[in-house]
Amino acid sequence: MTQILPSRTLEQRAKAVANAAKLLRSGNTVALPTETVYGLAADALKSEVVAKIFEAKARPRFDPLIVHLPDLKWLECVARIDHDSQGLIEKLIAQFWPGPFTLVLPRREIIPEIVTAGLDTVAVRISAHPLFAEIIRTFDSPLAAPSANRFGRVSPTTARHVLDELDGRISLIVDAGPTLHGIESTIVAVRNGRMELLRRGPITAEELEAFGEVFFAEGVQRPEAPGQLPSHYAPLTPLVLANDPFSFAVPSNKRCGLLAWRSMAGAKQFAEIRQLSSRQDLREAAANLFRYLRELDRLNLDLIVTEKLPDEGLGAAINDRLCRAAK
Known about the structure:
Blueprint: E1 3-6, H1 10-25, E2 30-33, E3 38-43, H2 47-57, E4 66-68, H3 75-78, H4 83-96, E5 101-106, H5 113-116, E6 121-125, H6 130-139, E7 143-144, H7 159-166, E8 172-175, E9 186-191, E10 194-199, H8 205-208, E11 214-216, E12 239-242, E13 256-260, E14 272-275, H9 282-297, E15 303-307, H10 314-325
Parallel strand pairs: 1-8, 2-8, 4-6, 5-9, 10-11, 12-15, 13-14, 13-15
Antiparallel strand pairs: 2-3, 3-7, 4-7, 5-6, 9-10
Helix pairs in contact: 1-6, 9-10
């Protein structure tokens, strides 16, 4: 059985930090909260330990992992920074670290190939979650930590979601309540002084444009970073994305649920409705996205219809997740 440790009180928090660090040092996988989603963490510098992440998640080895750093001093230990990119990287780090922002850079040999799926680059970030930060500083070494769910499924934003996915497959879940952002980090590759957006996330393309032109990764043949596969973040229930769910024709004798952006009062064709944000707030919508998808997925529906959001800012990141879930 997988153990869950709460962290509400100072005593609980100290116990959770000590137990998590001890298990990580002994080569176990531990589910930890971050500001984005819950991650499944293991020692990033040991191939045989990282392999346990792939086994627990049933994750294919060609999909690289993000490496979380205890502090900025570790960056040049795990990655190379070319002269043309140094100024831009320093500005991005100053603005977005710690936070939901991942950089893809040339890797150093200290990072095992299993972490990078054999690529010559590594994805790195520093989490802003205070409990994750305390645990990784106590562990005092980088952690590989993809989302703590079965591969391709809806990412977990609570400890209960992790348990539903990985009970019996991992040693420990540290419970710190719901995550803040609710979707995974933004991923940017910096090459020759320019930014390429590999995965949309809480740091939007518009925010990145303050630092220069943003290029968008298209037609990816092999993932350079997590979340680039065409099909991902998917519930078990079939899902479709609709521009106008008001006019969606529900098939006869089918129970359909709706994940809505706008108010859907009176939409009687849907058996269940979840509205991402009654205030039309994109950050609230992102925080609710995976939780509501999981709720609808548990209701024995025949189909989940999702409404497309405004395709700008954080709405573009949410649409990206919905498009991949629908494939």
